[in-house]
Amino acid sequence: MTMATFLAVARGEHPADLVLRGARIANVFTLEYEEAEVALWKGRIAGVGKGYRGAVEEDLSGLVLAPGFFDGHCHIESTLLTPAAFSELAAVRGTAAVAADPHEIANTCGLAGVEYMWREGLGCPVELFYAAPSCVPASPFETAFETLDAAALATCFARGWCDSLGEVMNYPAVTSGDPELWSKLFAAGSRVKSGHAPGLSGGELCAYCASGCDSDHESVTAAEGLEKLRRGMWLMIREGATEHNLEELAPLVAADEARSSRCMLVSDDLTARYLRDRGHMDEKIRLAVRHGISPLAALRMVTLSPASYFGHRDRGAVAPGYVADLVAVDDLESCRVRRVWKHGRLVAAEGRLAALAVPRAMPPAGVPLRVALPPEEAFSPAVPKGARLRVIGLRPGQVVTEHRVVEPSVRDGRAVPEAARDLALLAVLEKNRGTGRLALGFVQGLGLREGALGSSVAHDAHNFVAAGMDAGSVRRALAALVAAGGGLVAVRGDEVLASLSLSVGGLMHAGTAEEVVAGLDAVEAAAARLGTPLDHPFMAMSFLCLSVIPELKLADTGYVDLSRGGAQSLFVEGA
User: What is the 8-class DSSP label of residue 2?
Assistant: First the structure.
């Protein structure tokens, strides 16, 4: 386009490519509705006002026209979908852009995984902005395929794969001034540095903020969220498939909607079924309104606020010069999406994706190493005399866990699971470097009565994890994962009840969204037959390994609790 023609369209002196008229315009600058027409030219908004004419004109009477939605923090891999398949589900829900942190596949495939995510994102109906993974591995207690140091991050920036620094999860290294971690902060330069500061307060929070990591999606209480806002952080209010923080944090914005300019609604981790059946950022708006935030403030939190935070000055609003990413909805309260435009092109209507040629990239090599599985007796640890047992306490709806110490269930001198106490055996098998190292723990809260669940999705290093009610079933679940090179599996004894292959980095299914949903439905139904009442048991289990989240976790090196100094023993002797 020529600037002269664009300006002529803006002045109303030249026909636009498309004029959208009749809708109420949701203004996220002033938090009000306007009666106006919107003129588009070559993928951008030329004018907002009256009297425009276009080569094509569309009547949107009775609808609300809003900016396309923007998810400020997500991990595409958690949906088990490739970037292209993810974008197809998200686009029909009004999503125009996401800020995705590909640290999941970076843990299993290194830089090749980051490049794959970027290449597959090219030409998708959702703009995929990637953050350079800052913590691979997430902590010294997890084993990734390769370590991404400051030079690796510089490569991500230099090659154009990433435009910000991904969540900096190793907060002890930040606040203590660890040179290796800080070299990554320096490598990011003036780019946005997303934060991750669960439970930090007072001087520790100040030290973290001084690093330039100025956002956080880990707040679980209103008091924590308010302190972070007061210290200059952008508050990312997370509402994922298993992590539900919106209800607790919504009063912060409802009490003073000026705070919506420093707050975002983010998903972090969703399942493909959640995306298909409940929605994406449209669902966040509905939930925010239900929890007392006004519709326009909720809209700003999924449009202008994330766009502003990440420095996209020409996105997130219906305004002249802005990218023509637009969505028409019945109203913001119900947020039923009717039309979606990406760069001025209609990409979805009435819940259906337009005929688009969405590209696919060659996935990185799968898990290259076959690990040796320890014998069954290795899954039943001997109990020292008089010792008590450390147990991970799963908290429904949260990624944080409890650090419990309980009396072990003992048979023949060895610790065993016990269904009556909801005490399941937990095992992590290192596979990224082929060592086959086995770490054991126990977990309460999964609700299993028999059998075992296994997964190659185990944040953040994504080694193989299994939890179950007998050592044989746990070992069988791990054996199925080794044979497949990754996936989700539910077993009972020697019988595999259901499985879903995750051949792309051990994290994503290579097929369609419908195939992923069908496969996930099958393994979750099998998990329910084994007793778990959880809606998303595999996602809940995946967070039991994430060492940088309080409290107790199980990595491939053993128990970890960073709030208590790091590595922890399985048994507490002399207690």
Answer: -
